[in-house]
Every structure is written in C-alpha cells, then in structure tokens.
Amino acid sequence: MLKFSIFIFCFFLYHIVAEDGHCIWYDQCGRNSKGKLTNCEYNGTAKLLTDEIALQTLETACGMVYNGQNDTYTCCSSEQIATMADQFGMAKLMLGRCPSCYYNFRSLFCAMTCAANQSNYLSVVETGTSEKYPGRITVESINYTVADDFAQRILDSCRDVLYPGGNQHSLDTMCGRPYDKCTKESFMQYLGVDNPAVPFPIYILFQNDTTKSETYFNQTTFLCNEPLITQYENKTACGCLDCLKSCRPLPPDVPEKKFLIFNMDGWVVIAVICTVFLLIVFHGTMVILPTFRKRPTIIIEQPTEETSLLRVTVRTKKTGCLISIRRRTEQYLERIFFRLGLFCAQHPFIVLLTGTIVIAGLSSGLIKFQVTTDPVQLWSAKSSIARQQKDYFDKHFKPFYRTTQLIIVPDDQTFETFDYLSPPAPYAEYTFGPVFKLDFLSRVLDLQTKVLSLTADVHEKNRTVHLSDICFKPLEPDNENCTVFSILQYFQNSRENLYKRIGDDFFTWFDYTTHFISCSQAPTTTNDSLGLSCFGDFGGTINPFMVLGNYSDAAYANATALVITLVIENSNDPEKVQLAEAWEKVFLSFMKNFTEEQKSLRAAGEWNKTANFTVYYSAERSIEDELNRQSQSDILTIGISYTIMFLYVTLTLGHIRSWRTCLIDLKISVGFIGVLFVLLSVMSSIGFFSYCGIAGTLIIFEVIPFLVLAVGVDNIFIIVQHFEHMKDENYPSIDIRLATTISRIGPSILLTASSESIAFLLGALTPMPAVQIFSLYAFMAVLIDFLLQITCFVSVLALDARRQDSNRPDLCCCVPVSSTLPTDNPNEPKSKGILQQIFTKVWTPLVLGNTYVRALIFSIFITITCLSLSIIHRIPIGLDQKLSMPKDSYVLDYFYGLENYLSVGPPVYFVVNQDAIDYKNIREQDLLCGTSGCYSTSLLGQIGEALRQPKLYYLAQPPSSWLDDYFDWLQSTNDPPCCRINNQTHEFCPATLNDTLCLKCPITFQDNQRPSPDDFQRYIQYFLIDNPGEKCPKGGHAAYHDAVELINRTEVKTSYFMGFHSVLKTSKDFISAMRSANEIAKNISKTILNNQTRPYHDSNKLEDYPVFPYSVFYVFYDQYLTIWRDLIVNLIYSFTAVFLVTCILLGFDFHTAFLILLCVFMIIIDMFGVMYLWHIELNAVSVVNIVMSVGIAVEFCAHIARYFAVQSGETRLIRARIALAEMGSSVFSGITLTKIGGVVVLAFAKSQLFQVFYFRMYFALVIVGAMHGLLFLPILLSYFGPQSLEFYDEEKLARQVSATNTSLSSGININDDEGDICDSSRKL
C-alpha cells in the first residue's frame, strides 16, 4: 500500500487563509490522537534552508522547488523534508519506472509541502493542538486548489505504469479502483482523503479560471513519452509497458485470409473444376470415342453367363523388353517359392521346430519389455524445440509445479448489494457476485481447512506425509506455510479475519467485501482500512484472476466461482514424486467421498445438510490415473473384438463339401494356428525391440494386433482358398500341389508384406516418438508374420491336408472317420465356396458387366476423392482432452469447470538462455528491462506490445520483471532502505530488522540510475532472499527466488520473466498461443543478436536463441506445429516404398505399381475426408492410424492388381473380371469380414478415445478400403491396366473359352496349359 504523509505547519487560525506568498505550516508537531504526524501551523514567510543533508535531499526529491544551496527558501523544515523523502521512496517503488509520471507526482506534493508561496493555493480547514508541544497549533486538514488540467496531466502520465511484482498497474493501488476506471477526481480524492495512510485529509479542489491563476497551483508537466529534462534531472521517456504513447503504432488488423472463389471455398471450387475436367476427358476418351471404333470380335456360340464376360478382340503382339523382364521376374519368384513351399511341405516338423525355437528366442525378450507412459516421451521428440525448452527449464530452475485444484461454484447464483457508510467507505453501495456471500465463504473455508489437513500413510517408507512435506514454500525457511492460491488467503485463511468488521450499530464502514476490493485492486497492500494485509499466509501475493472465475473485463466482484490451487513441489527424484502422489491419492479419495455424499444428500432432498455448492477437482496424477483406469476398463472390449475376429477366421476358413464331411473339412485348427502365428509375430516383434532396449507404448497392443491381423488373415485366406481351388487340377502329391500354390501366391504375399514392411520402416524416420515406435514394431511384426506364413503355416497346412485326405476329423485327428464317406472324383470339377460364387455370378457382372455402370462408378470415386482432397485443410488439429477420459470420470467434470469458470490461462515463461546476456552490462540490461531507459524493442518492450493485441498473441497479464524490480529495490529511498548491510558482519539486513549497525548499501549509480557492474553482482543475492513486506514490497524472495540462477551467488547465469496466457479452451487456442509465444521470442532473439552484432539462425537448436518461451503445455502441443509436415513426409516415405517394392517385385512393372499406388493414395485421401465429416481431429493417434492405413490399403489393392498383371487375357476387361472373381472373395473374407465384426465391438467401448480414433477410423478404413479394392480398382484396371504377360491368338482363346464352358463351376477359371506353372514345376 502506498503510504505518504504530508506535514503542514500553519500560520493562521481555523478557516483563516494566509497572506499571499507565505507559508501555512513549518516543522512537525508530533503525533496527534490518531497516531499521525502533524505539521505545526505557521503564518509567515519561507525560511532559508541551510541543512546540507536536507538540501541534498530536497535537490534529489524536489528539484522543482530547489534554488541552490544559498537561495532555497522553503515552508518545510529538514524533518519534514526527511519524512517527505521517505514517503516518496514508497511512491518511487510504485511510479519510479516512469520518470515523467514520478516527477509530476512529486511536483504535486513538493509544492504543497515546501513551496515558499504555498498559501496561494493551500488553506487550512481544521486545526488541532499539539500533544508534543503544548500550546502549539497543528494542521488537521487543508484545501489544496490545483489547476483542473494539471491533475488530468498527472493522471495521464501515470495511468499505464506497471507494478511488475504484483502483475498489476500502480494506479490500481493509488486510485482505489481499477486503473482504467480512474478519473482525476477519484485519483485526487484517494491521494488526499480515501487513502488510509494519509496523515490528515487533503481536499484537492480544481480550478480552471485562468484569470485567477494566482489562487491555484499549476506547473509544467511532462508527458509519459517525453524525456525528463530539467536543471537537476535528465532521464529518458517511459517505456511502452508504462506508457502507451511510447509504444509503436499497432499494425492494422489483418483479417484471416480465406481462399475464396466466387465467395465459396476456393479449394472446393478448384476440386469441382478439376473433377469436371477429368470426367470430361475420361468419358470422352474411354466411353464415347470407343463407340465409334470398329473392332473385330469373336462371336461365341450359345453364350453363357460366364462366357458373356469374355467378348474380346483377338490380336497378336510381339513381346516387349519390359514384358520379358516381368515374365522372367515372375518365373524366378515362382521357382523360389515353389522350392520353399515344397521343402516346408515335405519337412513340416523341422520347419515348425525351427520356427518355434526362433519365436521362443525372440519372445523371451518380453522379460525386458518396458512401457513408456510418459506423454512427454511419447509425443515429443528429444530433438524438438519444445522438448529442449522443457529440459532446459527443468535443469536450470525446477520442474513445473504439481497442481491440485478445486473449482467451487455456489448453487445460489444470485447477486447481492451491500450498503456502507460513505465516507469513510469509498462507496455507499457494492454489488457482489454469488461467491461473496459470507456463509458460502465460511463453508468453503471449512472445506479448504479439511483439505489442507489431509495426511497420507506411505507404508513403504513407514512415514506419514503432510501437505507441508511436499508443498511449495516460497519464503522457506522464514515462512513454512504452503503456497495456496485462494480468495481466503486475503484473510490469511482466518475465520476471525473473514468476519472482521468496522462500523457502528447502524452502518458498516469496512468489512470483508471492502477488504476484497482493496486486495483485488492492490494485491500488495499490507494494511488497509480493515487493518489486514492482502498477502497470503505463505508470504506471496494473491492475484484476483487466479482465485476467481467467470467474470468479465476485470470486474472481479461479479465472479460466480472460486478457484483454489494448491502448489506442490515437482521433482526429478522418484522418491519425492512418490510422496506427492501418495498425498494426492488421499486428496482425490477425500474429494470423491465429499462429492458423492453431496449427491446422495441432494438425491434424498436433505438440502439443509448439503454444502450448497458444486466442486470440480483434480490433482496432478488425475489424468494418468484415469487413463490407466480407462485402459483396464477397455481390456474386455478389446478382447471381445479380437475374439470375434479369431472365431470368424477359425470357423470360415474351411470349404465344407457336404454335411457328411463337415468334421473333416473344417479347418479350425489351421485357422487357430494361423491367428496364433499373427499373435506370435507381434510378441516376437515386442521381444526383439525389448532386446534392443526400445521401450514400447500402449498403442502397440491397441493397433499393431489389428494391423497384423488385417495383413496376416488376408494372406491365410488367400493361401487356403487357392490351395482348395487347386484340387481341380491333377498333382502327383499334396506336397506338389501345396508347393504350386505357394509358387503362385507367394509372390503376391511377398509383394504386400515387403511394401508394407519397408513403408513402416521408413515411417520410423518421423520425429514423433510414438509414431517411430509404432512404425518399428509394425515393421518387425509384419515381417515376422510373413516369414511364419510362408514357412510354418505352409507346414501346418500340409499336415492338415494329409489329415483331410485320410478322412480324419479336425480337432480329433487321432480318430479316423468311417471309410464309407464319399471320395472325390478327380475328373469332377469341385464346387466353389458360396462367397466366391457370389463374387463370380453377382459382384463381377454387376461391377464390370455394363460399360455405363463402370463409367458411373469410376466417376463417383474420382469425384469423392477430389472433394476429399479439397477439404483436407479443414480437418481440425489437436486432441480434445475430454476424449481421453472415461465417460464417468470426475476429470470430465473438472474439464467442464475449466472451460466455463477459469478466467486466466497457464503461466508462460520467457527464458533468457545461458550466456546470452551479460546482465551486469547496462547496454545488455536495456535489451531485457521495461523501465525507462530500456530499448523500446527490449524483451519486456516487445511483450508489452504483444499485450496490446491479446487476440493475436494470447497474453493476458503483464510479465513480472525481476530485473526492473531489482533496479527499484536498489534505488529505494525508504526509511529504512531495502538494501542494507551490517557494518560489522557484512551480512544482509532485511527491512524488517531494526538494527543501528545496518547501513544503506553503498551503491554507485550510472546512466539511468543503473548500478555499476560490481554493485549489480554484489547485491543480487540479497535481493533474491529479501522477503517482501510493508517497508520493502519489492523484495524478490517470494516472486523471483526461483526465477534467477546464480553462479557463485554473484553472476546471473540464466533467468526468466513470467506472464500469463489468456484463457485457452480449445486445441486451436493452445496451439495458437504456443505459436505466438515462439514468434515473440524469436523477434526478441533477433533484436538481441542484432545489437550484439551476431547472426540469427532460425534452427532447431535451443542454443541459437537468446530467448525462448516455455509453458507446461508446450511439450504436448509442439507436435501440432509440424504435424501436417511430419504426416506428409511419412506418407511420402510410405508411398515411395510401396511404389518401389511393388515395381521391383513385379519385374519393373511401373504401370501396375503406379495403379496400386494411385488406389492406396485415394484410400488415404478418402480417409481424410471421413476424418473431416466424422469430426476426427488430426493428432498423434490419428497419424498412427493413417500410417497403418497405408499398410492395410496395400492389402486391399495389391493382390487383385498383381493377379491382373500376371493373368493371361486378351483385353483388360477380361483380366479385370478374372482377377476380381478369383481374388475378390479372398480379400473380402480375409480383411473386410474379419475386421467388421471386431471393429463394431469397439463402438461400445467406454473410452471415447476408442470410439472416435479406433472405431470410427478403423470402420471407415475397412469400408473405404474394401470399396476401393473390390469396386474401384477392378474398374481402374479394366480401363488403364497394364498389358498381359502373354497375348493369345484365336486358337488359344478358343481353348480358353471352351475350358470355361465345359467347367461345371460358375467361376471364370481360365487354364493356360502352355503357361501353367505346374508344367514348369514338374521340370524343377
């Protein structure tokens, strides 16, 4: 609280005005009955001031009335000058940052106290009798007439001056109301009358009649943006933080740029134009023009449904070089896989034993498996700038505090008006919000007291943990109270102080509400009208925006919620964290019981027993606890999902010939082992990387099994179904048939597995740790699964085929079935499965049977992809934190409280990097500070400019500046001054110590009252241990002890300047706040480096930035600044891998590789469209799912595309029909049906995260992938597919058609005797 005393000695009696040019007082007459110093009445001329110390003091404090050593006549004695200078010391701490403001303020009271002609504008209103000097008259109140515009000029020059230590404006304290609502009348009223520290009433009157200029005081003043240049003073103008006129003009508001064409989204318009253009070109070249061409066709007699699909033009064409390479590559791969399949079929036990040993060895690594649950390590790369910022802050200062918070909302939301006697109260009426009802505050105090008294038993350490054992104590060891931010701290958590009242039987003068008004306007008040301090019992200030909620425009009295925050020390020591977590667990249990009890009382209608308020609460461990609980609750859901997929595979894998052979034809054991191989591949992958020391994540268990099942089960169906189909052909043995199957299917499986594995391996190059780990584990799992399928699974299938040939039932193979069972006729074609018949008879003719249907479907897919591409930029970035919590979590209620009641955002620290600044150098200081003399582009200057644009930079409160407060602390002229040294021990003397041995620190001041380099280093340690108080409110112990890191207690190594973000509610707010803070810090860094003539590098290395921002949430949201870039780079790696691997394994078939890549690309683009339409945000979880989608998309496309590429046929349409009929059912049953059942179950998960990011994305992936693979891709191939490896002549085509007609199966089975791999295999 600003205190200043004006002591006046009067000449005349009560209501008598002194003659012009004379004094009305001189010297001091002791204290009156109220304990206030009084001035002695004196009606005479001014006296010559001869005291040298007083002259020096007057020259320094009141240069405007100082006329030299031998010509200074004053109406004040040396004692009055000393008292006035002492009180100016307090004013200097409040206003000294702005020299012109401080000068104008001093001129008002210097003229009143000491001017030789004070009687012209001062008049005595009331007098008294001196108790110290009986018989002498004292001045008890006066009128002080000043020019009307003079008071306004003082106010204008001081309005914006900050008091950094309290995150407030100085006029909040010195005007009795918020600075922006202060008028010259209220300003002068508070300075002269309302201020409790005023020794007697000074009624300041205004006069604007220029003809009576001799009857009021007026003097030249300085604008805040003008340098202070007088005979005795020469100082720079005020800085931007303290004077808006000193700030550079704000740039014009630039509206958010929107790409519009014809007032519509430009990207959508472009997409529509491109779609129309592509469709016109497509229909013109592929649909319309071919109708005008005449082509010879073969007419098939008596066409059937099957042969009608084979209307073709017969041509003969020479084989090109690329075709030859493709054929040779295909033959080479077939030979390799034939030999491999033959060996596995002939030596199943050797293969299975070897596989078991390898899998067991890899899986043994599970004993070393570690799970990374720390979100910092999961979502923030070690090399990211945000991670470097956090590591630096934790190392040089301390980890950000653990917070335990309660948001309390009263049930009664009515406002209330309080009446007071005014004066002495500043107002007659006050209107307060619901939280200011006394009974409500009393109940909150009860709850807070219970919380603060909670204890936790830590049995492992055999100790009891109190809050005082783990909390943050800013004034330790002088003050052992915990830091608790609460409105009740304005009353030091005392019920007696809360109920304190000053008044009489009829009127209230001051009570808890007036005390709150004083504290909300001036948190550093140490003694208000109620006789209470506004400091918390822990010794720190309580800013109203931290303890009140749901108010607007700094109208704190309108708050409808209270916020209580318990600050707990954080640490890198696990033992200390364990103690904190133990206490937090007890707190959460207490609050859970409290809230449940309140709910039960309300349900029972016992309202008189309820607390009549709602509490939203959370602790540091809350989110992690709830995530763990959520994971455990969804284990059953995930288990059911995988069980459904497992049962589907095991029960549908076999081809049942009839009910009599049902037990024999079942392949439950094969399906079970196939799925088991999938799970073993995941285990082996985990074990392998556990050996490598790469910790896993929970995503591995949630995503990779789904991925490998999609990939592996598809391959299982393809192998088994093709093995069953080849029963139609005659082979010497089961081993040869199985080897032939693998020779035909193996290259396709190799193609998909290789492209997926390499795509995932390249995906590990992304900087996001969670995606890196997922990609590595997925790469190894897919690779091991592929190896198991083409070796061990082939051996299992060979054993199962022998069982089936010996008519032994599945699962009970030791029991032979009756030999009377019908045997297969080798010459009788085998019936196809129901699903394949559907694809042959229904789906293929529907999709590829009609030219216009094909064109329509193709057009629809192209349109959807183009539109999806146009809305990608609309996908929101971030992760709604509510989605990560279970639906029944108390943390969801807390999030609701944060969004609706919190009125300030998280703190933001602007950290000065080590060795970036020479703090003792004045020029270097000017690059940081915000007081007068500092550069306008200094750190605090640029932050001040950003504060003027809160919507752009998301900053809410002025930053606290230890450097500015340190300057003020050194310059203090209080009695005693802030900086004192014991003359004998040379130890620091705090202002509260009354010891004659303590002398003012000898300080040498240089330009702009800056300390010399030696003095700067000598006294900084004392500033950081000085407790703030009434005599020295700028002591730095509470606010800055942790903000400055010292070397050898003298040299500043690094420091930070703390401010607050505005309220941040959405992911967009958090991301924008972080981006804007980084922008501010980079601009500051450029300024510092330019002044130091050093180059600026915009790099990813923290040491390249002299200043950087840090807030606790940056490390979690840093991923979003580059998430699109990282995702695009990852997709480019994956697409490149898919294209190259596909191209190589198809014998440099660029054509097919491109079409596969195009289809995969379209699936991913359509997935983005689904994300936008289904409100799925882009974050690390969805990025992992998108990367996974590439792998599954390859499965949907590659098998059909490869079958098409190697299939013989005259036209693309014929080959597309054959490929779809033969491979479509395997893809549909292996991926689509397998996944649908498992995915649907995820919709019933308790976790909203599972519902959004797993159910929605997986379901969309299965549907979108299936539609592209089974609908769009065949049509694409029918139009733009590559050439066949072999071109038929008419005779060969006739044989092909004849074979198709004589086949009893309805499928399109084309046998090429000349190119049959069976012939080749027999030659091997």
TrEMBL record:
<feature type="transmembrane region" description="Helical">
    <location>
        <begin position="1257"/>
        <end position="1280"/>
    </location>
</feature>
<keyword id="KW-0325">Glycoprotein</keyword>
<feature type="transmembrane region" description="Helical">
    <location>
        <begin position="635"/>
        <end position="656"/>
    </location>
</feature>
<keyword id="KW-1133">Transmembrane helix</keyword>
<dbReference type="GO" id="GO:0008203">
    <property type="term" value="P:cholesterol metabolic process"/>
</dbReference>
<feature type="transmembrane region" description="Helical">
    <location>
        <begin position="697"/>
        <end position="720"/>
    </location>
</feature>
<keyword id="KW-0153">Cholesterol metabolism</keyword>
<feature type="transmembrane region" description="Helical">
    <location>
        <begin position="267"/>
        <end position="289"/>
    </location>
</feature>
<feature type="transmembrane region" description="Helical">
    <location>
        <begin position="1154"/>
        <end position="1174"/>
    </location>
</feature>
<dbReference type="InterPro" id="IPR053956">
    <property type="entry name" value="NPC1_MLD"/>
</dbReference>
<dbReference type="InterPro" id="IPR004765">
    <property type="entry name" value="NPC1-like"/>
</dbReference>
<feature type="transmembrane region" description="Helical">
    <location>
        <begin position="668"/>
        <end position="691"/>
    </location>
</feature>
<keyword id="KW-0445">Lipid transport</keyword>
<protein>
    <recommendedName>
        <fullName>SSD domain-containing protein</fullName>
    </recommendedName>
</protein>
<feature type="transmembrane region" description="Helical">
    <location>
        <begin position="852"/>
        <end position="872"/>
    </location>
</feature>
<feature type="domain" description="SSD">
    <location>
        <begin position="634"/>
        <end position="799"/>
    </location>
</feature>
<feature type="transmembrane region" description="Helical">
    <location>
        <begin position="1186"/>
        <end position="1205"/>
    </location>
</feature>
<keyword id="KW-0813">Transport</keyword>
<dbReference type="GO" id="GO:0012505">
    <property type="term" value="C:endomembrane system"/>
</dbReference>
<feature type="transmembrane region" description="Helical">
    <location>
        <begin position="776"/>
        <end position="799"/>
    </location>
</feature>
<dbReference type="GO" id="GO:0030301">
    <property type="term" value="P:cholesterol transport"/>
</dbReference>
<keyword id="KW-0443">Lipid metabolism</keyword>
<feature type="signal peptide">
    <location>
        <begin position="1"/>
        <end position="18"/>
    </location>
</feature>
<dbReference type="InterPro" id="IPR000731">
    <property type="entry name" value="SSD"/>
</dbReference>
<dbReference type="GO" id="GO:0030299">
    <property type="term" value="P:intestinal cholesterol absorption"/>
</dbReference>
<dbReference type="GO" id="GO:0015485">
    <property type="term" value="F:cholesterol binding"/>
</dbReference>
<dbReference type="InterPro" id="IPR032190">
    <property type="entry name" value="NPC1_N"/>
</dbReference>
<keyword id="KW-1207">Sterol metabolism</keyword>
<keyword id="KW-0472">Membrane</keyword>
<comment type="similarity">
    <text>Belongs to the patched family.</text>
</comment>
<dbReference type="GO" id="GO:0005886">
    <property type="term" value="C:plasma membrane"/>
</dbReference>
<feature type="transmembrane region" description="Helical">
    <location>
        <begin position="336"/>
        <end position="362"/>
    </location>
</feature>
<feature type="transmembrane region" description="Helical">
    <location>
        <begin position="1127"/>
        <end position="1148"/>
    </location>
</feature>
<dbReference type="GO" id="GO:0005319">
    <property type="term" value="F:lipid transporter activity"/>
</dbReference>
<dbReference type="InterPro" id="IPR053958">
    <property type="entry name" value="HMGCR/SNAP/NPC1-like_SSD"/>
</dbReference>
<keyword id="KW-0753">Steroid metabolism</keyword>
<dbReference type="GO" id="GO:0042632">
    <property type="term" value="P:cholesterol homeostasis"/>
</dbReference>
<keyword id="KW-0812">Transmembrane</keyword>
<keyword id="KW-0732">Signal</keyword>
<dbReference type="Pfam" id="PF12349">
    <property type="entry name" value="Sterol-sensing"/>
</dbReference>
<dbReference type="Pfam" id="PF22314">
    <property type="entry name" value="NPC1_MLD"/>
</dbReference>
<dbReference type="Pfam" id="PF16414">
    <property type="entry name" value="NPC1_N"/>
</dbReference>
